[in-house]
Amino acid sequence: MLNEWYQHIVFAYPYLLWLLLLLPLLIVWYIISHKKSSSSVTVSSLGIYRKTGSSKNVLRHLPFVLRLFSLALLIVAIARPQTRSSEERVEGEGIDIILCMDVSGSMLAEDFSPNRLEAMKKVASDFVDARKTDRIGLVIFSGESFTQCPPTTDYAALKSQIYAVRSGILQDGTAIGSGLSTSVERLKTSESKSKVVILLTDGENNGGLIPPSTAKEIAKAYQVKVYTIGMGTEGFAALPQQTTGGVVRTMEKVNIDEKLLREIANETGGSYFRAKDNESLSQIYADIDKLEKSKIETSTFSRYKEEFYPFAIAVVVLLLIEAWLRYKVLRKFP
User: Fold this and answer.
1) TM segments (predicted)?
2) Whether the predicted model's global pTM rises above the 0.70 cut
């Protein structure tokens, strides 16, 4: 308990603690001066009085010890021990961001570890952790789109929704236009000066009621910047398929409409990225994090509580005990 208390103590004048080095010098001085003042004469006829005043002989060094302790406590007290409590207040202008994620069946391909979907969820969660004052939402799409989480600053709730994403909960397909238009819909009433969609897909648009070109124009109309990410390795990727005999892995060709994704990004003021493995995917989200920085001001307030009072009280008590011993118990009569 005492050790825990000491770990939270700071000193206003820590350099005064160097005065504690005087204490060993005082002890040496006391020993030397006491030896010089001691008598070396022995009178055999007084042997019967040897036990007289033995208790005083035991106590005669106690006043010095008490004064030494009181001096040590006084030095600690004038160094002003304090406990500090700090409060940090973060203020700033945040960005409204929608994470638009493809959850089609092809996102189970295993060219990422353990697969594309799980790798995407991991880096998206890390991205959320890096933000401070932004409102972030989640839209998922396959053959249709759905708002999994509206824009929020409750990052714990958002991350739980990210990890709850599963393939197969929506009609299969790749409706890029629907996913983008739903994302813009969540941002169009935002009063934030910067509105961003991070759209990730591993395929080509093959479904949905809204063409990607129309969704792109809607994003431009509402001044929504779109960063697009094509996810998948070159060539073929292993895709698990559930059959009556169990899970069978087939090699599927990776088809990403990079031209479309680059066009959406360029015309809305964003950028296009290609992720071919876990490391490049993590780096892409880190790069977007650097490109879209919030204006954050951090103010730290520190409160100090003085803790020298117990030391000062202990000094007074020790000096009173010393005085009582010196002038009452150990008093020398002429």
Assistant:
1) 12-32, 58-79, 308-325
2) no
